[in-house]
Amino acid sequence: MSRIGRLPIDIPAGVTVTVDGRDVAVKGPKGELSLTVARPIEVAVEEGQVVVTRPDDERESRSLHGLTRTLINNNIIGVTQGYTKGLEVVGTGYRVAQKGSSVEFALGFSHPVVVDPPAGITFTVEGNNKLTVSGISKQAVGEVAANIRKIRKPEPYKGKGVRYAGEVVRRKAGKAGK
């Protein structure tokens, strides 16, 4: 049995979870998220807890069991606390600035790079080299942060670029001089 999948999820106060066939909707103080559950997995709300079950021990059922439970738990955490991902801009002349709801990066290109937030995502700039991506969907926050990092990944020689907060960049030795 899946160790994660069999754990019931406690529903905190102020959060409602509704199961309508294959759709699970989670509504909380920060917003609303929904999820479509894959075919063999069953979801039920019992006595203030969400219970995820599987009908058999087939390989696909076992793999979807823990995944479904984790996705529902992530939605509950998202509508109560939300998710954040920190980014740091490292390099001489590299900076980030807030322009309304979007952010503008100076990353050594001949032009500034403007990034607009998708629906449900907000950007917060601290100083001129720290950016925080926040929202209620863990998947959306991670994807937006990864796309921003992809604009200028940290390079291995000087470490310049956009990196996650706390990310350790492996550095290479330069050319050996004579």
Describe the protein in words.
The mean pLDDT is 95. This protein has helices spanning 59-80, 138-151; strands spanning 9-10, 16-20, 23-28, 31-36, 42-46, 49-53, 83-90, 95-99, 102-106, 113-115, 121-126, 130-135, 161-164. With 178 residues, the chain is α+β, with helices and mostly antiparallel strands. It has a four-stranded antiparallel β-sheet with strand order 11-12-7-13, with helices on one face. The chain has a three-stranded antiparallel β-sheet with strand order 1-6-5, with helices on one face. The chain is built from two helices and 13 strands; from the N terminus they run ββββββαββββββαβ. The protein is 20% helix and 37% strand. It is elongated and about 70 Å long. The chain starts with 8 loop residues before the first strand and ends in a 14-residue tail after the last strand.
